Amino acid sequence: MSSVFAREGVIRQTLKTVCEGLGRSAGGGSVEISGLLLGRDLAGNLFITSAVTGDQVSTEFGSELDDNFMARVAQAMITGKITERIVGMFHSHPGIGVFLSQQDVRTLANFQRLYPRFVMMVIDPLARVRYRFFRYDTEAQMARPLSVELIE
Ligand SMILES: [Zn+2]
Predict the structure, then answer these.
(1) Most exposed residue of 49, 79, 91, 148, measured as fewest CB within 10 angstroms of its CB?
(2) How many domains in the chain?
């Protein structure tokens, strides 16, 4: 099974961002938070070095990143302010558990066509297992959880 390496501080920050999203929920509804994971290849594995989050657009399928945010990230990459590549995305499932919805699986499979090591991180700050990384297995046609190693 392939591993994902991630900076411990990035995971901590991402969990914090998701928890702050929970705090903003009005009337008992849950605010979904999503963002992009940046990183690079590390000896044939994926190394996640930072995470960015932007404005959310809520749809019936959950949250999507605002187009302006995506454009700002793209601009930062073109101008060299961001030197890493987009290697994954994260989003929250507040109170419903850490799994991929059918829409999540489709999104993940699409991104893996552009970058085979692309991962999707799902976070439920209310669950016992608070987060998990997934990758789509094109042969088995299903998403599989990945083991994660945190690096300081
Ligand atoms: Zn989802």
Answers:
(1) 79
(2) 1
CATH of residue 135: 3.40.140.10
**Which range of residues forms the domain containing residue 58?**
3-151
pLDDT digit string (tens) for 22-61?
766 655 556 678 889 999 988 888 999 999 887 665 555 5
Q: Which two tokens stand for residue 144?
A: 């599989």
* Ranges under pLDDT 50 in the chain: none
* β-sheet bridge partners, residue 146: 133
- Which pTM was predicted? 0.86
Which two structure tokens, joined as six digits, stand for 36?
A: 């992009």
Residue 26, classed as helix, strand or coil, is: coil
Ligand 1: distance of its center to the CA of 101 in Å? 5
β-bridge mates for residue 138, sequence order: none
Q: What's the burial of 41, exposed, middle or buried (CB within 10 Å: 0-12/13-18/19+)?
A: exposed
